[in-house]
Design a protein that fits this description.
The structure is a homodimer. Chain A is built from 13 helices and 9 strands. With about 290 residues, chain A is α/β, with parallel strands linked by helices. Chain A folds into 2 domains: about 160 residues, Rossmann fold, CATH 3.40.50; about 120 residues, N-(1-d-carboxylethyl)-l-norvaline Dehydrogenase, domain 2, CATH 1.10.1040. The first copy, chain A, has a 6-stranded parallel sheet. A 3-stranded mixed sheet of chain A has the order 7-8-9. In chain A, α5 links the parallel β5 and β6. Chain A is elongated, with a radius of gyration of 20 Å.
Chain lengths: ~290, ~290
């Protein structure tokens, strides 16, 4: 199968590498060419634009930065839909706007190109270990066609509904995490301030109703003073912004998510935008000085 | 060992029952006598006041309602410390104020009575199955003496520090849960409003960074329309109020916990005080109508 891959950042390069290692013919494009060097050295064809990459591909994957990048790469003058051939499938793995996913899907429909929104969770490590969760929205037949490729890169691969449903599911994921991180960092601050040993506390609270991935994984990192990403604060702010835009569109007030957005924006303003999400603790400490 | 047990509500009756079944001689007191009937039928001695129950006991357990109840039962005219003999140990399993735990401990010291604060997590079911987590503050020797009794009733039994440290640890636990519940209920609301199937969503988000006890246990109950406790909204409000009082005393601002307190107070006002904590979803739905 001829595959085009647009976006070879940390996530994209790992994901595309798995497809390449599985023997798929790859054409790649990235804004910064050097980030595709390894894939090209392993036999991928370089394309100078998304349009060129997409021209003869059966499946076109993209994973880029912000919704405006998604819109340019998919719908722009040199974008994927300007050259993709009828019958091809476009898969957007960027975490992006559900409304934009619907818009791109409609533009694809008009040209006979099925579009799947398929954001992932699992981060750098999940991408590297082919253990990503793919949350997919779009046409069921297109999903079945692409599924064997998803399975090369991930583990939990679930069709959540029509166009946009993958992005909505990712927003549910981020909404869960947003308030969870507030709880995690406030609890750590309380533990510190009250003179408890946070590692001993974990023995009491780690196995019950307070248990979470964050408590098991980020709590020990915070204790060790490790605030490296993991998942970047600035990317989390982007995701929460999308979720809040969608919530507003649905007339939905989500006070916890709004507070998380505000607190993380503050965290970035304090200089921690390129730290991991657990750096909210640093911001809360400074706000409580 | 002669044990006194003050407070035979749902939790206390199960816990005392385990000690009785293990062969310990029990004297019991409860504000509502009928709730101690089963223990008395099984051979426990009834006492008319906490003071009478405590008079000849080696270890005196109490688990009552609010901090004011704790203060009355421990320090009041007919309270435990009015009659307990030097060398006895008082163990308070109520979720109560850390500052009050310190006060009772000091009052005990003056009479040669060691005091442990030992709130639990695990709820009705944990109490019934002898699977509670005991978070303990106080004297290390007293802890070692009581530990075999804790082990009859629980699984994770951890000395967290001096007087009040058990209560502080419980507050950390509740702080984690408070914001976690906001995330859980907001995420469910978002999923519903965006037309997703929450059970299918769980397949995508249940195994990664959004994973939590609440997501595994309460999310399915919410889907099934099951808002029964589990853990009562009104008890959770009590606990968060204590945590916020302590935070204030430590000059600590915890915006997520404050928001959870406000949202759960609203949940109780809407008539859900005797529902489980997942009933926050019902309140958020009504607030978003």
């Amino acid at each position: 199968m001829k595959i085009a891959w647009i976006g070879t950042g940390v996530m994209g390069a790992s994901m595309a590498g798995h497809l390449q290692a599985a023997g798929h013919e790859l054409t790649v494009y990235n804004r910064t060419k050097a980030k595709a060097d390894a894939l090209v050295a392993n036999g991928a064809r370089w394309a100078d634009t998304p349009a060129e990459a997409a021209a003869d591909a059966n499946v076109i994957f993209m994973i880029v930065g912000y919704p405006k990048d998604v819109e340019n790469v998919a719908l722009g003058d040199d974008g994927i839909l300007s050259t993709a051939t009828p019958g091809a499938i476009l898969v957007d793995c960027t975490t992006s706007s559900p409304a934009l996913a619907v818009k791109i899907s409609e533009a694809g429909d008009a040209k006979g190109i099925a579009v799947l929104d398929a954001p992932v969770s699992g981060g750098d490590i999940g991408a590297k270990n082919a253990a990503l969760s793919f949350m997919v929205g779009g046409d069921a037949d297109a999903f079945e066609t692409v599924k064997p490729l998803f399975e090369i890169m991930g583990k939990a691969i679930v069709l959540q509904g029509g166009p946009g449903a993958g992005q909505h599911t990712k927003m549910v994921n981020q909404t869960l995490i947003a308030s969870g991180m507030i709880g995690l960092c406030e609890a750590m601050l309380y533990a510190e301030k009250s003179g408890l040993d946070p590692l001993t506390v974990l023995q009491s609270v780690g196995g019950g109703a307070a248990a979470s991935w964050g408590l098991s994984n980020l709590w020990p990192r915070m204790i060790g003073g490790d605030f490296e990403p993991g998942f970047f604060v600035e990317h989390f702010i982007k995701d929460m912004g999308i979720a809040l835009d969608e919530a507003k569109r649905m007339n939905l007030e989500l006070p916890g998510l709004s507070m998380a957005f505000t607190l993380y924006t503050k965290t970035a303003e304090l200089g921690y935008g390129r730290k991991g999400t657990q750096a909210l603790l640093l911001a809360l400490r400074e706000m409580n000085l």
